[in-house]
Amino acid sequence: MGSALVACVLLAGLAVLQAALVAGLPLGRFAWGGRHEILPANLRIGSVVSIALYALFALIVLQAATVANLLPGQGWVTVAVRVLAGYFVLGTVMNAASRSRPERLVMTPVALALAGCCLIVAIG
User: Fold this and answer.
1) What is the pTM of this model?
2) Percent of the chain whose predicted confidence (pLDDT) is above 70
């Protein structure tokens, strides 16, 4: 249960960052490759989609850890949390390869922690 809660706190933090980016705050160096300090419209739309995905990811993690029962079925949730672990491993690699130093330094460990939390939930 602890790993699921840590994952949700990290996902909530990422959602707050994405909301700040949607609002036009100059934090683009931490996301989307760090190319834009203030995101253009198309990346702001991507940030809105990211917020929705983070909420879904949190529900999946909570249900897989049997902390919540909000989604229909259970078998697919077990597979989904494993897919999320892989997704965050890929995110770790992509963030580590970013040209943006702030993104590498901040987002790489966040993605790695999320991968670890999802893996623990998946095998737990």
Assistant:
1) 0.92
2) 100
